[in-house]
Amino acid sequence: MSPVLRIGRNAHTGKYILPPSSHESTEQARTFLKTHGLKSFLDAYLPEQLTSIHIYCLIRLLGFEIKNRRLLWDLSRHLETPRGQRANNSNSGPLSSTESASHNLSKYRVNSSSKDPLSSDQLARLIRDLQKAINRVLSMRLPLSSFSHPSSIIPILLSAKNIIVLTGAGVSTSLGIPDFRSSEGFYSRIRHLGLDDPQDVFSLDIFRKDPSVFYSIAHLVLPPQRMFSPLHAFIKLLQDRGSLLRNYTQNIDNFESHAGVDKDKLVQCHGSFATATCFTCGWKIAGERIYSNIRKMELPLCPHCIDKRNPSKPKSFGVLKPDITFFGESLPSRFHSLLRKDLEKCDLLLCIGTSLKVAPVSDIPKLLNDNVPRFLINRDPVSHGQFDINLLGLCDDTAVYLSKLCNWKIPCKNWQELASYDYECIKEPQKRCFSIIRSDNEYFPENNKIATNAKTASQLESESKIEENTTVNTTATSGSKIN
Ligand SMILES: [Zn+2]
Q1: Where does this protein have compositionally biased stretches of type Polar residues (predicted)?
Q2: Which one of the listed residues 54, 78, 232, 270 is annotated catalytic?
Q3: 90-100 pLDDT, tens digit each
């Protein structure tokens, strides 16, 4: 069937009736544009007798909405909205006014013999918006069509030789480590400190002026020792199979090492508590040696600098700082040197437990070749990652689910117990999204017949919340020397 836009008109009101739109029709149109190019796309979708309504309809079909309110209002006066149609088809946000428009749409003119509902200025504006929408789609990665169900990712999991695993806070929440940005996360828990921005506790400038700000909360992010989750062990399993190219972790808890991921396979993008360095002379020690200071909310002091501390010096003089990357510090050089080579080799990207909000790590999916499959394992979908499949739920459950499908055994001590559960994969309303649920979860289909697919993700969200159990003391001013 020809994809040309067919716009009807109400015989009584004269209003235009837009064809129904859906995620499927948007994906089809984007695929057509990327596959066949601009000329074929416009020829196929636009009729010969063109009105501004067709231009607007095409912008929406590509998944965008126009920004100009006046123009939207004028358009709405001429449109009928059929019941059941999505009020807003945009799934990529409004069009930015700063994008360049490089494609020439000028040959598509409204037939001068027909009366267009909009003024020529408004029509010109719409054409510019269509150009922006087209440019954006052309620069966008489209999901690979070969992955329609989680089971379809098993062959690639089994055959991939160079997997990049990108991990975030979500892989450690099952161990009681709070994530940073959720409503129950670390930044919410320190909001009462009265900082302009809770992220300031990790500001290098503030540490330089007053390291006690960091040491008053550092115990909250100090990792318990020698722990790892089934998900961390799943990464070790990929390493044992020889298919792990690298694990880029945004976490500072060092749990990947505890699970046995080799040093050379691991890039701790934001550093870790594994080592600490004197802020003044650069003396370095094992991070564990300042753990007791951190727990007591004391400043750990460098033995080489302690005697030179005095009130005329900055408060950070001679203070040891864990080698976690603060805001204002550059990422470890290892991140940049390895990433460039790894991106060329990578044949599968697994993003796990991350909402991809912190650059430059969040840019890794965009830097990969478009033809490299990428899967998300996370509590919530991450729309800007353009993943081929989104597996939603608890990261540990999904790791066990995939391992069972692959006939793998995760090297963790409770594997037998984890494998004894059934795991259900449920299609979510969002495109390419599936929830993975364990059979002891009350929302497992057999446990709760009234549970609907749409409820699943929100239920998982509430179950993975971390209880607030720690109070914050802001008086970490005393210092203690490290020998
Ligand atoms: Zn020192």
Answers
A1: 86-117, 469-483
A2: 270
A3: 444 555 433 33
